[in-house]
């Protein structure tokens, strides 16, 4: 939209909490947990993903350095190479063929729902 430079956001909401991402702020995730230690201080926490405790970040940049668009690709390649070299499964950090299948089912249901102008039941 007008005024946005690189806007892409997603949010996942569930019964135990929510997580949100904004491409214009690659260095943070917004995290909300329903079971917070302090009941009076509810709300999203701005979690930095540039700390060494995040395994993908530690492989690319020193602690606290800002992530850029290109680092997402480096993280994906680093993970893929690690999985191949060490005979590890790509999940949960990478998508499996089953994940791709489920995405395709969802996309087809969205298209069908749009054509039919009604809700569509999905089955995997």
Domains counted in the coordinates: how many? 2
| Spatial strand sequence of the major β-sheet | 1-2-3-4
The helix-and-strand class reads alpha+beta
Major sheet details: 4 strands, antiparallel
What percent of residues are in strands?
A: 15-25%
Distance between the termini: 34 Å
Number of DSSP helices?
A: 3
Domain Gfo/Idh/MocA-like oxidoreductase C-terminal: 5-121
Organism: marine sediment metagenome
Pfam families: GFO_IDH_MocA_C
Protein name: Gfo/Idh/MocA-like oxidoreductase C-terminal domain-containing protein
Secondary structure elements and their pairing?
Blueprint: E1 9-13, E2 17-22, E3 28-33, E4 45-48, H1 55-60, H2 69-85, H3 97-116
Antiparallel strand pairs: 1-2, 2-3, 3-4
Word description of this protein:
The protein has two domains: 9-91, no CATH class; 94-124, no CATH class. It contains three helices and four strands, in the order E-E-E-E-H-H-H. The chain has helices at 55-60, 69-85, 97-116, and strands spanning 9-13, 17-22, 28-33, 45-48. Strands 1-2-3-4 form a four-stranded antiparallel sheet, with no helix packed on it. Strand 2 (17-22) and strand 3 form a beta hairpin. The two termini are 34 Å apart.
Q: What keywords describe this structure?
A:
124 residues, alpha+beta, 4-stranded antiparallel sheet, 3 helices, 4 strands, 35% helix, globular
What is shown here, in short?
The chain has 124 residues and is of the alpha+beta class. 35% of the residues lie in helices and 17% in strands. The chain starts with 8 loop residues before the first strand and ends in an 8-residue tail after the last helix.
């Amino acid at each position: 939209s007008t005024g946005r430079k690189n806007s892409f956001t997603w949010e996942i909401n569930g019964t135990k909490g929510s997580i949100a991402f904004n491409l214009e702020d690659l260095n943070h995730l917004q995290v909300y947990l329903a079971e917070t230690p302090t009941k009076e201080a509810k709300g999203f926490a701005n979690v930095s993903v540039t700390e060494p405790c995040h395994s993908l970040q530690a492989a690319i940049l020193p602690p606290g350095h800002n992530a850029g668009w290109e680092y997402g690709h480096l993280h994906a390649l680093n993970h893929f190479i690690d999985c191949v070299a060490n005979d590890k499964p790509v999940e949960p950090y990478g998508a499996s063929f089953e994940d791709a299948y489920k995405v395709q089912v969802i996309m087809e249901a969205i298209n069908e729902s749009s054509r039919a102008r009604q809700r569509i039941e999905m089955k995997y």
